[in-house]
Amino acid sequence: MDRGAEPLTESYFYILLCLYRGPNHGYGIMRQTLALSEGHVRIGSGTMYGATGNMMKKGWIEECPVQEADRRRLYRLTEAGRQALLDEIDRLRHLTAAADSMMIEREEKCGIKRRAM
Amino acid sequence: MRNKKTRYVMYPAWEYRREIEDLNALSDKGWQLEKGGCFHSVFYRDESVRYRYALDYDQHIDDPARYRDTFAEQGWQFVSDTFNGWHFFRKKYDPALPPEEYDIYTDEQSVQDMASRWSRLGYVFGTVELICAALDLFALLRHPSMTGVFVSLACLLLGVVILVGAWRIRRQETAGRSRKSMRWCFGVVLALLALGLVFGLIRFEATSYSEYVYDPDQGPWTWEMSVPMPDYYTLDAEVKTDANVEITVTDKRGSVLARMGGGQDLQARETMFLLPGRYDVTVRYDPDTPEGTAGAFRFEVD
């Protein structure tokens, strides 16, 4: 994992995560993100345009050819994008693992009951 | 009843949220935006629908078709854009939907990106204004004038207001607060520019240029000059004669305000502060100099 890489914003993370399931268009990504985040993360049109544009420049996603009649833009994940997503998941796992070990240690030491998540 | 109206309202860039609020309020009253602009906007009457508006700033859109398609996917209709990179969108209002449905930027990063696009331009423009103000002030020291004072102050204030605006739009979280002072400053800048323009126009009227042939045998020659407003005026004299001449500026009470001359082929500038009124510019031939004949002189008041 590239430890020097910047952490992804929630919008970037969810866009990559949604495309991990297969090609999707902006509106589909927005709806899926809303569902996956249980309504906490919404991706507006301006954010979507900027994020997809930046990720295309980085080579993480690309546009799929679509039929002329369909104005919706279909995006798919590239290998570089898949790797960026997996790296971010690793980073998040590492963070939560560190947090968990600290919590458990404190619970055992002080007898504090962990708050339900 | 009118079906169209034009609204002449100027919003500074850092008050784009207020512009959105105003557009939404007008839509609720049945006035729908047809064309948004920096200096005026055109509306048409349609009470059957209510819209919520969004404003985006991007001067260099990489892929305009993809840009509009991305907005269209989420139900945004493109309304119009301005020459300087503002884009107006609207979406039909549904009271059942949460307010976040009408946000086009939904994370801090993208809000900051949008804000920094404008603030970069603001920093450049504001700095240029301050440089202009410094140059104006430098020119003012050499050639004092009331117009120069207004223009310098306007440039200085405009530069400061734009720089503060650029800083505020970047710090988006504070952009919605205590904006009255900014509006006040913006008003002062416009007032100073207007005053400078008025003073400049009046001064332009007062500027005169004359060329005469002076005959020393006819005694002193006097030109009555009218001053419309208090300001610094410069008498720029150029005399070509074979005799010494003296030029004086006197008020109607006979007080000498400026005196130039003595030599032949005289070229002189004299700056003086004059109150509104009438003044005499007198050219007098010096009889003590060797035989003089006719000469020509020119003077300009600026």
Mean pLDDT of chain A: 88
Helix percentage range of chain B: 25-40%
Q: What is the overall shape of chain B?
A: elongated
Mean pLDDT of chain B: 79
- Low-pLDDT residue spans of chain B: 173-178, 204-209
The computed structural class of chain A is mainly alpha
Which sequence of strands runs across the widest sheet of chain A? 1-3-2
What is the number of independent domains of chain A?
1
For the terminal residues of chain A, how far apart are their CA atoms? 28 Å
For the report, how would you describe the main beta sheet of chain A?
A: 3 strands, antiparallel
Task: Draw up the topology in text.
The complex is a heterodimer of chains A (117) and B (302).
Chain A: H1 10-20, E1 24-25, H2 26-36, H3 45-58, E2 61-64, E3 74-77, H4 79-110
Antiparallel strand pairs in A: 1-3, 2-3
Helix pairs in contact in A: 1-2, 1-4
Chain B: E1 4-7, H1 16-28, E2 31-35, E3 41-45, E4 51-57, H2 64-73, E5 77-81, E6 86-92, H3 108-142, H4 146-170, H5 180-206, E7 208-214, E8 221-227, E9 231-240, E10 245-251, E11 256-261, E12 267-274, E13 277-285, E14 295-301
Antiparallel strand pairs in B: 1-3, 2-3, 4-6, 5-6, 7-14, 8-13, 9-12, 9-14, 10-11, 10-13
Helix pairs in contact in B: 3-4, 4-5
Question: What would a concise description of this structure say?
Answer:
The complex is a heterodimer of chains A (117) and B (302). With 117 residues, chain A is mainly alpha-helical.
